[in-house]
């Protein structure tokens, strides 16, 4: 139990101190005047983040519906 608590505490502490971008990406995105590249990068991140959630959600719904149909029949 102590190992789990220490692991969770370590995970939360390191999560707080990490940065989301590498140094080069941050430098390029901060130096641009129009910020159009930054908007494009953010849109790409959102796109890449949504796809796995949709896939897992679809598989979860399919499994739930299969189980639910077996219970009614």
Summarize the structure.
This protein has 73 residues and is mainly α.
Anisotropy-based shape: flat
Helix content: over 70%
Report strand %: under 5%
Taking pLDDT < 50 over at least 5 consecutive residues as the criterion, the unreliable ranges are none
Total domain modules? 1
Number of H/I helices: 3
What can you tell me about this protein's structure?
Helix content is 85%, strand content 0%. The protein contains three helices and no strands. The mean pLDDT is 79. The protein has helices at 2-17, 23-31, 36-72. The chain has one domain. It starts with a helix and ends with a helix. The protein is mainly α and 73 residues long. The chain is flat, with a radius of gyration of 21 Å.
Descriptive labels:
73 residues
List the helices and strands and how they pair.
Blueprint: H1 2-17, H2 23-31, H3 36-72
Transmembrane segments: 44-65
Signal peptide: 1-22
Keywords: Membrane, Signal, Transmembrane, Transmembrane helix
């Amino acid at each position: 139990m102590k190992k789990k608590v220490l692991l969770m505490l370590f995970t939360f502490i390191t999560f707080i101190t990490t940065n989301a971008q590498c140094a080069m990406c941050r430098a390029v995105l901060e130096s641009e005047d129009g910020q159009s590249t930054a908007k494009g990068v953010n849109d790409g991140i959102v796109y890449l983040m949504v796809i796995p959630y949709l896939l897992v959600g679809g598989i979860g719904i399919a499994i739930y519906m299969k189980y639910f149909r077996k219970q009614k029949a």
